[in-house]
Specification:
Strand order of the largest sheet: 3-4-7-6-5-10-13
Number of strands: 13
């Protein structure tokens, strides 16, 4: 009987000599197969479990095998939690899980069982209908082959075909044509649907509910609850539906919002035993070592939430979510201003590798364009906020497949993660102007650059320790010392105190300016959640945009990339206006040394890589050279002729040297004239010479 290397892991910890024997090598091969089956290899790399890497570094597949054989496994790692194995799952359950991955029909039966079976009486069936009838129908389809002696069952065949359609973006028309061809090419008596409409009905009963909510095109309201029967917007008077054309019977809304309720989606995670066990990973996993943050549960915000809401934190199956949103253009061609905004939620109960897996993301909202909702995004978030309030206060009865019992599932939103513009849209703080920093709020230090016409935020040294040497550095910063302490961020109670006695803004198309506290555009709808005002961290900036922006600007500055570098004449004139970094000030032409020729100045400028000409200066140089090139060529030809007439017996070599010297002098003089912002009458040299 073949040895089960996954159940029996005694082979993992042996001496250095035994690691070259077949039992250890075969065990490493079984480990790598296990990792591949659980899809833990990303872009050819996976977490290395050897003693040196210790599940901290990603290595190539072949390097991981060599590391394990050479160094051995890290100590106390018989449960492969970093490579797809679920902690707390018994050996029998693990074998059952492996078998489910091998038999496709059993996967379909499990999918039907999760979607239509083992449910609480309070849960409504998806898209209505009788649950018992749908359960029997789909269970028969999961067992019945698509045609006689076929490899795939009717349900598994269609689910795979439907997935291919979605991944490759097939149109409904092309999918119908394919179904007709497959139906005719298969043996008689097959169960292939006739068209896309019949196929869609099969998937709809297995899917989850989607609400189509009409919205005002000016983002004033959504036609939901009290406004569901209105035919025009009460704020701006815009019509709800498009004008009917000849022969049109059904009303077509001008703007549509798709809302996917999250309650049933979260309940289904507990109906499958595999995911039910994974949903308590944050409670069962070992704490991080040496105070390192390996999961959101290690953050002070998570621990502060647990201390403020002990009833919620005592149940490890209660769910904690994060929310993110950003706009994108769904069309491939450029120049289209259309902007669609999805709202995505992440589940922090899962392990880090599952929480960031796309298959576990949820999209409760899809806000249609053609323009960004801006500060009016709260209008579209209202159904989601109402559902989150209900899930936190009342909860919902949910079946847990791991324990075989029902429990009251509650849900909390921990924070949001966005780029800076979306940060302002969700938080309500104005991220533009002189007080754009949401951390420093009204104490933001900012100045206006007189030549670049931009706002500069220069109070970063306040965040340093009190004894940090940069606080006293007046040379490399803004010319001042920083003695102020670190600012205190606004708490939720502080924000609500600022709004005390003031009504929230009216969303949509409103004429005139609305009264708000200084620095605020609106009162965020997230404050309707009963726990939001006590959350230690409410909004976060995503790391990707920060790393990308900072690194790009540094590289463009160092490489002097055309049109991208921030080192230009305007920036250096701003330094001169602030009277800082004098070695970078531009030198007026009148201050040049008289004994230096234009050619010597040209050589001096080129030899200094930090003073490369900016893009605008190069373009002006090309224009100036093109404009006067013809005249300079004529002067050069005339001077050569005059030199030839006066010298008489001069050799051709002397004439050639004279012409080359005059050409170099002409190029140097045009280089020194070219970079002015206006023309040759400018006072400043484009190359921003650095004084010795």
């Amino acid at each position: 009987m073949a040895r089960n290397y996954i159940r029996d892991k005694d082979w993992m910890y042996v001496g250095r000599a035994e690691r070259m024997q077949s039992i250890f090598v075969n065990g490493v091969g079984a480990f790598m197969d296990f990792v591949r089956r659980h899809d833990m290899v990303r872009h050819g790399r996976l977490i290395c479990p050897c003693k040196l890497c210790a599940n901290r570094l990603h290595q190539l597949e072949e390097e991981v095998e060599l590391h394990i054989v050479k160094n051995g496994f890290v100590s106390d790692y018989k449960t492969w939690v970093y490579h797809g194995q679920i902690e707390g799952l018994s050996d029998a359950d693990e074998e059952e899980q492996e078998d489910d991955n091998l038999f496709l029909d059993e996967e379909m039966e499990e999918m039907v069982e999760v979607a239509l079976g083992n449910t609480s009486p309070a849960e409504d069936p998806p898209f209505g209908g009788h649950r018992e009838d749908n359960y029997d129908k789909y269970m028969n389809d999961a067992k019945r082959p698509i045609y006689e002696n076929a490899k795939h069952s009717t349900l598994s065949w269609f689910v795979h075909l439907f997935q291919i359609k979605c991944l490759n973006k097939w149109s409904n028309k092309s999918f119908t044509m394919l179904l007709k061809f497959l139906k005719d090419s298969m043996p008689p008596g097959n169960h292939v649907p006739d068209n896309w409409y019949e196929a869609q009905k099969i998937m709809s009963n297995l899917g989850l509910k989607c609400e189509m909510i009409h919205a005002c095109p000016n983002d004033c309201i959504i036609y939901w609850k009290e406004n569901s029967d209105n035919t025009e917007c009460p704020t701006c008077g815009e019509a709800r539906y498009k004008k009917k054309v000849h022969g049109q019977k059904k009303d077509i809304p001008i703007k549509l919002v798709r809302y996917f309720p999250i309650t049933q989606r979260l309940q289904r995670l507990f109906k499958c035993k595999k995911t039910a066990v994974a949903m308590t990973w944050h409670h069962r996993a070992r704490p991080s070592e040496n105070g390192r943050m390996s999961h959101p549960r290690d953050t002070p915000a998570w621990k502060d939430f647990d201390s403020r809401h002990p009833t919620f934190s005592q149940e490890p199956r209660n769910i904690r979510l994060g929310l993110a949103s950003d706009g994108f253009c769904p069309f491939s061609f450029k120049g289209n201003p259309h902007s669609t905004w999805p709202v995505v939620m992440m589940i922090y109960n899962l392990s880090p590798w599952l929480a960031m897996d796309q298959s576990y993301f949820m999209m409760p909202l899809l806000i249609d364009g053609p323009k960004s909702p801006g500060n009016n995004i709260d209008v579209y978030l209202r159904p989601l906020i109402e559902e989150l309030k209900s899930l936190f206060i009342d909860g919902v009865d949910t079946y847990d497949a791991d324990t075989g019992t029902n429990f009251t599932m509650r849900v909390a939103l921990m924070w949001t993660i966005n780029d800076f513009p979306a940060y302002g849209m969700l938080s309500g703080w104005s991220v533009h102007g002189y007080t754009a920093c949401p951390y420093c709020h009204l104490q933001t230090t900012s100045k206006r650059l007189p030549f670049s016409k931009k706002t500069c935020y220069c109070g970063h040294r306040r965040m340093l320790d009190e004894n940090h040497p940069y606080r006293d550095d007046i040379i490399h910063f803004d010319g001042t010392k920083e003695n102020r302490p670190r600012p205190d961020p606004l708490s939720g109670e502080d924000i609500l105190a600022q709004w005390n006695g003031k009504n929230n803004v009216t969303f949509g198309k409103i004429k005139g300016r609305q009264e708000t506290p200084q620095g605020w555009n609106k009162k965020s709808i997230f404050f309707e959640l009963p726990y939001w005002k006590t959350n230690k961290v409410r909004h976060n900036l995503d790391v990707m945009h920060i790393e990308k922006g900072v690194s790009e600007h540094i590289l463009n500055l160092l490489l002097c990339k055309d049109g991208k570098s921030k080192d230009n004449l305007k920036a250096r004139r701003d330094l001169q206006a602030w009277n800082i970094r004098k070695e970078l000030h531009p030198i007026p032409k009148a201050e040049r040394k008289p004994h230096q020729s234009s050619q010597q100045q040209h050589v001096q400028q080129v030899s200094r890589p930090a003073t490369a000409a900016p893009t605008g200066s190069r373009q002006q140089s090309a224009a100036a050279g093109k404009q006067s090139g013809r005249q300079q060529q004529q002067l050069q030809a005339g001077s050569v002729q005059r030199s030839a007439a006066t010298t008489g017996s001069s050799s051709k070599r002397q004439l050639a040297e004279l012409a080359a010297a005059q050409l170099q002098q002409q190029q140097a003089s045009s280089f020194s004239r070219a970079g002015s912002p206006a023309a040759a009458a400018t006072t400043w040299d484009h190359s921003c010479n650095i004084k010795k």
